[in-house]
Design a protein that fits this description.
Layout (H helix, E strand, L loop, with lengths): L10 H12 L3 H11 L8 H5 L4 H13 L3 E6 L2 E6 L1 H17 L4
Length: 105
């Protein structure tokens, strides 16, 4: 019977790895920065700000949303995106704790 190697790791280790994976692309970092600089949700402006196609940006938004870092609200035919501030604060705390535990910061 097959088993998942993930079962050997603690839940917080898996969550940190999932967050790191979601942020492991420069376009996703750019999207997070763009959303952080706005006080409201944005829709099509993301495509206008980045040198990527609509479909590529949609894939990156999906990855960030699945990781819980952003929220998407349906507004008619559009989806408006914004940061999930609580999730971002949790991610910041996770990464901070990891670097403190390995004594590099």
């Amino acid at each position: 019977m097959a088993y998942s190697k993930a079962s050997f790791f603690l839940p917080d280790e898996i969550e940190i790895a999932d967050l790191a994976k979601a942020m492991a692309h420069p376009a996703r970092i750019a999207i997070l920065k763009l959303l952080a600089n706005r006080n409201d949700c944005i829709c099509g402006e993301i495509v206008d700000e980045l040198p990527l196609s609509q479909s590529t940006i949609s894939q990156h938004l999906k990855a960030l949303k699945e990781a819980g870092l952003i929220k998407g609200n349906v507004d008619g035919p559009k989806v408006c995106y914004c940061l999930d501030l609580e999730a971002c604060d949790n991610a910041k705390a996770f990464f901070s704790a990891i670097f403190k535990k390995i004594n590099c910061c």
